């Protein structure tokens, strides 16, 4: 044991060992999940319409997450005077859902099986994509589990109904979600510029319960102002497309759109929603690491996930007091 009492045994630096998420235990048997948080990779990118490569997102984000895994009893934040993700928060990595090349239906079914396993075990589900179509099976898994509201942070509306027979690509997930009777509304933040959805899609989204907010509108409202628009007492599921960030800090994605968020804008929205609402899960999608040889996009994704989990479980611990 060191003089600070932080470690015993191996030092286990971030670059040593197997790159599970946060260097947390790997659980291969999905019937034996005993954890507060479970992480699933969904390396599926056949839903992309331009640059593929998000199938490598889960591996890249896992490796990047080791940067934040020194294991010094959680992460102390001097601004908040709080320690996040201490040893009391048990996180496991379930590995990846099996992807069957060119078979959207089977691949999505396998992702849904993983999310169902996490929810059945009472673990907070974290799904790392993969393109944004992987949100479809994630939301499907919430059927029969109560009403939810979706907070989407993204450059694109993703509200296409059907295009040339395609209903489950990465331009469709928010439309598929809005059709679910248990999805009570969507808050879509960061939507900007030339988009993948025509005007009719925006009109349909608003009719089906969407609150659409651009980057500039978010900056006028502020992070808290955006979150205050989500109905009180809503149970919130977060879907975070990495292209919601400005490509100046997150170039590693298939459909970059300039004018996006910077780190603290997203972090502050996530902290605000964790304080105000029960959070029921998150997926983070569209990290395509081959377009960012610095690794910065994957590091950003890992950092935002770990911080968000810290906020969620800090609030849960506060409520228990």
How would the blueprint of this fold be written?
Layout: E1 37-42, H1 57-65, E2 75-77, E3 82-84, E4 91-96, H2 104-120, E5 124-129, H3 135-140, E6 148-153, H4 173-178, E7 183-189, H5 199-207, E8 210-213, H6 215-221, H7 223-227, E9 235-241, H8 263-276, E10 278-285, H9 296-320
Parallel strand pairs: 1-4, 1-5, 5-10, 6-7, 6-9, 7-8, 9-10
Antiparallel strand pairs: 2-3
Helix pairs in contact: 1-9, 8-9
In short:
31% of the residues lie in helices and 17% in strands. The strands form 2 sheets. The chain has an 8-stranded parallel sheet with strand order 4-1-5-10-9-6-7-8, with helices on both faces. A two-stranded antiparallel ribbon has the order 2-3. The longest helix is centred in the last third of the chain and has 25 residues.
Low-confidence stretches: 1-5
Mean pLDDT: 94
CATH class descriptor: Alpha Beta
Radius of gyration: 19 Å
Termini separation comes to: 32 Å
CATH topology: Arginase, Chain A
Distinct helical segment count: 9
The count of strands amounts to: 10
The tally of domains stands at 1
Identify the quaternary structure here: single chain
Which strand order does the major sheet show? 4-1-5-10-9-6-7-8
Content-based structural category: alpha/beta
Bulk shape: globular
Strand content: 15-25%
Give the helix proportion (percent range): 25-40%
Query: Any idea what the CATH architecture is?
Result: 3-Layer(aba) Sandwich
Going by CATH, what is the homologous superfamily?
Answer: Ureohydrolase domain
Describe the biggest sheet? 8 strands, parallel
């Amino acid at each position: 044991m060191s003089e600070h009492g932080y470690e015993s045994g191996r030092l286990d630096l971030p670059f040593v060992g197997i790159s599970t998420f946060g260097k947390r235990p790997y659980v291969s048997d999905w019937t034996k999940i005993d954890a507060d948080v479970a992480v699933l990779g969904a390396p599926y990118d056949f839903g992309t319409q331009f640059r593929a490569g998000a199938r490598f997102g889960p591996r890249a984000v896992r490796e990047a997450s080791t940067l934040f895994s020194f294991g010094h009893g959680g992460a102390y934040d001097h601004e908040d005077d709080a320690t996040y993700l201490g040893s009391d928060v048990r996180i496991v990595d379930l590995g990846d859902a099996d992807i069957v090349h060119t078979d959207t239906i089977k691949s999505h079914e396998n992702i849904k099986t993983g999310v169902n396993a996490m929810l059945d075990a009472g673990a907070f589900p974290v799904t790392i994509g993969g393109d944004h179509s992987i949100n479809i099976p994630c939301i499907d898994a919430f059927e029969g589990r109560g009403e939810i509201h979706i907070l989407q942070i993204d450059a694109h509306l993703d509200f296409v109904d059907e295009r040339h027979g395609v209903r489950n690509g990465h331009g469709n997930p928010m439309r598929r979600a809005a059709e679910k009777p248990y999805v009570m509304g969507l808050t879509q933040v960061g939507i900007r510029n030339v988009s993948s959805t025509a005007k009719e899609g925006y009109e349909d989204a608003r009719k089906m319960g969407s609150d659409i907010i651009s980057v500039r509108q978010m900056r006028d409202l502020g992070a808290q102002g955006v979150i205050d628009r989500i109905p009180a007492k809503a149970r919130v599921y977060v879907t975070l497309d990495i292209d919601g960030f400005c490509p100046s800090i997150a170039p590693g994605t298939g459909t970059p759109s300039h004018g996006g968020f910077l780190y603290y804008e997203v972090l502050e929205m996530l902290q605000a929603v964790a304080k105000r609402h029960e959070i029921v899960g998150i997926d983070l999608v569209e990290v395509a690491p081959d377009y960012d040889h610095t690794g910065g996009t994957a590091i950003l994704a890992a950092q935002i996930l770990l911080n968000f989990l810290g906020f969620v479980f800090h609030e849960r611990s506060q409520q228990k007091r």
